[in-house]
Design a protein that fits this description.
The protein contains 8 helices and 7 strands, in the order βαβαβαβαβαβαααβ. The chain is of the alpha/beta class and about 260 residues long. It has 2 domains: about 220 residues, 3-Layer(aba) Sandwich (Rossmann fold), CATH 3.40.50; about 35 residues, no CATH class. Bound molecules: nicotinamide-adenine-dinucleotide (NAD). Nicotinamide-adenine-dinucleotide binds next to helix 1, helix 4 and helix 6.
Length: about 260
Amino acid sequence: MKTVLITGSSSGIGLGIAREFAKTKQFNIIFNGLETNGPEIANEIGKEFGIGTMFSNANMLKPEELRKMVDDGIAKFGKIDVLVNNAGIQHVSAIEDFPEEKWNAIIAINLTSAFHLTKAVWKGMKERKFGRIINIASAHGLVASEFKSAYIASKHGIVGFTKTMALEGAPFNITANAICPGYVKTPLVEKQIVDQAKTHGIPESEVISKIMLYKQAVKEFVTVEILGQAAVLMASDGASTLTGVALPIDGGWNAQ
Ligand code: NAD
């Protein structure tokens, strides 16, 4: 059995990715997130698929909690083979009004937490000559939109960090890749629909068609299943040369 640690996996995309790893029955899963039902989610998926699970509510803003989550995971499962940096937040606002504390939190949660966690798992991966790091960036890791300055800076940042990980990890069979989703209908996006409606001064119903899916050629929300399947592929033993990539799964948004 291998072990995968997925941040922000008690909700949305992280939970969808966890389910795809669980389906393979080849991974124990360390769940994480701020949702209070996180322990139940971890238990239920463990029972459903007959795999080992644990839950940590380590806060991405607190590096010491992240290091403890890694230590607890290693104490329970012996090692961490795959790290999925997925936890993330968003705030939508014009630059001149963008609250400084929101900027700092977005950079810390979406980018800096991935540094602390990668650093914490790196030595073990290097020693075992196996590691897979998957960063959930965004289509906004490759292109920008207005009113999301901190998010776009953080997601471009994680794409850059992914490339450095890939280069430093190459001699040790540690790969690093980013997945860049278009819009996925999760709690994070439900909240944006409300925020965007306010910022643009249009009804919420128009936000989906006129703003969100406007940039995607395929006018469908991206599913968590396809993102999870991509992550499982990137984590596989055979994917040793799949590294340093930022893979858009965005309905053709980046093709334009
Ligand atoms: P979500 O709100 O459903 O889930 C976010 C998860 O991160 C939750 O489990 C939450 O508890 C956790 N989290 C947030 N702040 C945290 C903190 N301080 N400490 C620990 N955990 C914290 O959102 P989602 O849509 O599933 O987003 C997951 C990732 O996918 C994010 O990085 C997001 O930027 C990215 N993404 C989302 C979309 C989309 O359309 N939903 C598109 C592209 C990229």
